[in-house]
Amino acid sequence: MQIIFDDIDAAEIDRRIALYGPLTQAVRELVDATIRTEADEDTIRDVEATIRVATARLREKQIEGSFGARYTADGTVMSWGNAAVGVRNPIAPPMVVERDDTGLHWAEITLGAAYEGPPGLVHGGVTALLLDQILGHAAAVDGKPSFTGTLTLRYRRPTPLGKVRAEARVDRVEGVKTFVVGSLSTADGLTVEADGVFIQPAWVRDRAE
Amino acid sequence: MQIIFDDIDAAEIDRRIALYGPLTQAVRELVDATIRTEADEDTIRDVEATIRVATARLREKQIEGSFGARYTADGTVMSWGNAAVGVRNPIAPPMVVERDDTGLHWAEITLGAAYEGPPGLVHGGVTALLLDQILGHAAAVDGKPSFTGTLTLRYRRPTPLGKVRAEARVDRVEGVKTFVVGSLSTADGLTVEADGVFIQPAWVRDRAE
Q1: Stretch among A169-178, B63-72, B169-178 having the lowest mean pLDDT
Q2: Sign of the CA dihedral running A2, A96, A37, B108
Q3: Looking at this predicted complex, what is its ipTM?
């Protein structure tokens, strides 16, 4: 498990986001174009060669293994490699989770061609990814991380590609278990309901004692 | 809903896979490098500019909207844009689903940095994506597509990044509902159990009558 303490200040975090964010966004656009292109063979082979060279340049110096979790000295968590929220992960839309005073967690995300399952619709597993993530945020009461124990998804209607809103809030806490409910919706209403049981890992419980 | 009948033969399908497959794989490698790079600022900005140009070249001629579902005249389904199995989707690992004589569906997938949730572990939502997909394959009895009705995931142990195996099989069929069970495991044993209820859409039922 790769947990790194990176003693950097807010200005350095901003500098890194300004550097890596646009690169990651450019790769997200490339992912979309890769799915949708109808360019001729020569162009495709040429672009492929260009991308292989670009990748090799990025790999000249790189992290061993996955991004892992990085914390600053003041406790800021940088989940930049995360598949749902990672600002350095081109697979992540990325989801930006907000929280209001009532404990409601929400995020609005626009999902394009890369997130398709059935034609024109968001992949059921992608809705699961978004809901698992936001339910996990809601479950992290007092900033303590929790792991998903059980996740149940009820698909009420198909979710068309485009703008979606994910929501979650804690229903109740029983010992180490936090029960969270959430949903996905579009402008036309609710499409997926979710509930999850999240469990605080022993190392978090131990740390708190 | 974009359903396209593309009257191409097996040789043309092979030609397209040989053209688009390596491009998509090159973008998958780039996604991994984008997360992991520690290259200097000048290199990162330069690679970003290169990628923007490459994307513009691919976009000179492209599909309107998402990839959609494409069928050949002989009924072959090309789910090439699918977020889990799409050979043209860099977000997809891609999963290749096999089936044995007993009705067991399985796939072996290697998950790298792009699929991370907690440090060193597969994102719970990514395991949901893989399980939703393979349970859906198992549910598609006689090749008839089904939509996910309910999906329940029980996380038994964390799933480390690396090689995983997904499995699914039909438990029982009751009218329009197909009950499917599945699991995710690593060399060290089972990590996630799943069960799903899949429902045949009305247009499939109507077509069968």
Answers
A1: B63-72
A2: positive
A3: 0.93
Planar angle of CA B20, B26, B27, nearest 5 degrees: 90
CB atoms inside a 10 Å sphere around CB B75: 8
Nearest to B155 among A50, A148, A153 (CB): A148
Cβ A132–B154 below 8 Å, yes or no?
no
Domains parsed from chain B with CATH numbers: 1-94 (no CATH), 96-208 (3.10.129.10)
Helices B10-36 and A10-36 cross at an angle (nearest 10°) of: 180
**What pLDDT score was predicted for residue A1?**
47
Round to whole Å and give the CA distance between A153 and B134: 16
Once rounded to an integer, what is the mean pLDDT over residues A178-187? 97
Peptide bond into A118 cis (omega under 30): no
For an interface test with A, which of B25, B29, B32, B35 has the most A Cβ atoms less than 10 Å from its Cβ? B35
B151-B153-B154 Cα angle (round to 5)? 155
Residues B88, A35: C-beta atoms closer than 8 Å: yes
Global pTM value = 0.93
The amino acid that residue A153 corresponds to is L
Work out the minimum CA distance from A174 to partner chain B, whole angstroms: 18
